[in-house]
Amino acid sequence: MLSQLTGMLDRLGGGLAKILNLIGGIALVALIPSFAWLVFGRYVLNETPTWVEQISLILIVLITFPVAAACIRDNSHLSVSFFRDALPPKAAAVLALISYAAMVVFGFYMLVGAYDLVVFNWAKSMPIIHVPDGLRSIPMLVCGGGIVFYSLVHILKIITGWKNIAHSRFYSDELLDKDTE
């Protein structure tokens, strides 16, 4: 039962990760022509488009935060696994559980802090482009929620995959995908 729930959450997380990566990719594609327009306006037209800076700030957080949350799911985020990989499989899995639990706490505080920023800044308007300043914090809110969700899914995958971990020679994230497929 728990294994089926974990598999369902993992598949849901995979779909959400694709959406988060798509958002980051679209923002990256939009950032390039906006800077091209900035350079063209400054050096060819001799009139710097001032809106590019504000739009770029929004695009940068749209690139950074959603993709960072998706990286938690894929275990492609920055991590130091040297010590974990040197341990026996059960000890490595316990260490992974502890690290994912710490990430849940971090993600929760990021979620709460970002929500407070959105609420606090929503009434303010961003200069030049006249949209709510709270928009800049929404991607951080999404990232915090993603970190919590994906870390909890990883914890469930470790719990449901404990038999695979116990019978293996070394700990690996690929071991956890066997029970959820």
Q: Strand share of the residues?
A: under 5%
In the predicted model, the low-confidence regions spanning at least 5 consecutive residues are none
Number of strands: 0
Q: Count the helices. How many?
A: 7
Question: What's the mean pLDDT score?
Answer: 89
Percent of residues in helices comes to over 70%
Query: Which of globular, elongated, flat, extended, rod-shaped describes the shape?
Result: elongated
> N-to-C terminal Cα separation, in Å?
14 Å
Short characterization:
By secondary structure, this protein is mainly alpha-helical. It has helices spanning 2-43, 51-74, 82-86, 89-121, 138-160, 162-166, 173-176.
Structure description:
- The chain is mainly α and 181 residues long.
- It is 75% helix and 0% strand.
- It has 7 helices and no strands.
- The chain has helices at residues 2-43, 51-74, 82-86, 89-121, 138-160, 162-166, 173-176.
- Helix 1 packs antiparallel against helix 2 and helix 1 (2-43) packs antiparallel against helix 5.
- The radius of gyration is 20 Å and the shape is elongated.
- The two termini are 14 Å apart.
- The model has no long low-confidence stretch (mean pLDDT 89).
